[in-house]
Amino acid sequence: MTRALRSEFTLFVLGLSIALIVGWIEGHFIAVPALFVFGYLARHLYYSWHLLAWSYGKQRDLPEGNGLWAEIFHRLRLQQRHHRRRKRHLAKMLSSFRQATEALPDAAVVLTAGFEIEWFNKAAAHLLGLKSQDKWMRIDNLLRHPGFVDYLQQGKFAQPITLHAPNRDNVQLEVRVVPYVPDRYLLLAQDVTQIRLLERQRRDFVAHVSHELRTPLTVIKGYLETLMDTEAAVAPPFRPLLQRMDDQLRRLQYLIDDLLYLSRLETVQNKPGSIQPVDVEQLLEDILGEIDQLKEPHAPVELRIESPTLLLGNAQELRSAFTNLIVNAVKYTPPTGTITVRWYANAQGACLEVADTGPGIPAEHIPRLTERFYRVPGSELHNPTGTGLGLAIVKHVLNRHQGSLEIQSRLGQGSTFRCRFPAERTVQPHVSTAAS
User: Fold this and answer.
1) Rounded distance, CA 372 to CA 126, Å?
2) DSSP for 398-422?
3) Contacts of 159 by beta carbon, 8 Å cutoff, 6+ apart
4) What percent of the chain shows pLDDT beyond 70?
5) I want to staple 110 with a disulfide (CB 3.0 to 4.6 A). Which of 118, 151, 179, 192 is the partner?
6) H-assigned helices in 182-238
7) Among 258, 105, 303, 75, CA closest to 194
């Protein structure tokens, strides 16, 4: 750019000098230089007109130019070629992207900030029943499922929503909305009919097997108790064996009870039944009263009620979840340790916190604690009767109460479990509230 400016300046000075000399020789000292300046300005106007015409698309190519204009036109031609290459590259990428999305078995729909349909693939036309004339219509005017309409209005897209396909009640879709630019959303819909069918079959199988096992287990346990109560029927060397059998039967009973309860939680609707304001303070006092009846020595449990807030929910389900958390803390904390149970509320909602000074949990195992039957290696030494289903039950109960489970733990420093509930699930005492 500096060279072009120098060239232009040299051109102007040289031309003006020649004009002055010619004017002095011809006796027109002012007219000739003025004529040069006019011609110089006319040159700039000429090239400016070409540049403006090119920018409006009225002219395809730029002139060669000279001086400063030669450099300007050269740079513009370079940028134009770069822009054309970039445009071809972007067009190729867009074509590849559209081919990829068209090949997807899942529905993909691009939505505007107002949830209007901008583009969709073939799978969306098949699964959601969209047509070409549906473009620029609001998606909730075409998918009128009440849950989906609420899903869009709330704008909480962290979790997907499951609904029936339009005009196809036998097809279940898992729909997720993903914001990907400030004013665009990507709606993804997957056919999960077979997955849900397999899940239902798995739940039914577990429930039926667990139910069928209860009868023979009860019979065996009854005979075993009869033998243990009759001292003459069993020789002393065999009595420890009967005690081990009784311990294993009791563990099997716990496992079957937990499986049946978990199956009930999974098979009923997402919302808990018989919703009512639950007095959490009284519920926790009842749980701790039962724990105090345990014969085995255990760490003391301190109860801190920092808020009188009640919780809208199912008392039986909440009792099961809270009991699992507190009993786990009791089983994994040595008698010399401490356990603290807190119930408090804030602007975000309410929280039950169970903190212990037990051995702690390795960080790599925390994400899997709520999986069925998952147990941290070595934990059976502290809790030999555990089934690995307690935290799975806690998770399901919290999900049904719009809650979430947070787990913090460090080896040798104990663990903290927090059950968080949203503000809409809380109610102050002595306030009449209609359960929804």
Assistant:
1) 36
2) HHHTT-EEEEEEETTTEEEEEEEEE
3) none
4) 92
5) 118
6) 193-229
7) 105
Using alpha carbons only, give the angle 318, 323, 324 rounded to the nearest 5 degrees.
Answer: 105
Amino acid at 32: V
d(CA 162, CA 324): 29
* Cα–Cα distance measured from residue 342 to residue 220, given in angstroms and rounded to the nearest whole number: 42
Q: What contacts 202, CB < 8 A, 6 or more positions away?
A: none
> Are the C-beta atoms of residues 390 and 370 closer than 8 Å to each other?
no
Give residue 436's pLDDT band: very low, low, confident or very high (50, 70, 90).
very low
Instruction: Say which range, 74-78, 211-215, 380-384, 394-398, has the weakest mean pLDDT.
Output: 380-384
Q: Residue type at 22?
A: V
Higher-pLDDT residue of 368 and 253 is: 368
Per residue in 107-161, pLDDT (tens digit) is 889 899 889 998 888 888 888 888 889 889 999 888 888 888 888 888 888 888 8
Written as six digits, the tokens of 355 are: 């903190």
Which residue from 189, 195, 194, 198 is spatially nearest to 166, judged by alpha carbons? 189
Helix, coil or strand: residue 79: helix
Give the span between the Cα atoms of 257 and 214, in whole angstroms: 9
Q: Which residues are within 8 A (CB) of 31 and not within 5 positions of it... i.e. 6 or more apart?
A: 23
CA distance 417 to 194: 35
Residue 413 corresponds to which tokens in the numbers above? 């420093």
All residues at 6 or more sequence positions from 421 whose CB lies less than 8 Å from its CB, including other chains: 311, 349, 350, 351, 398, 401, 402, 403
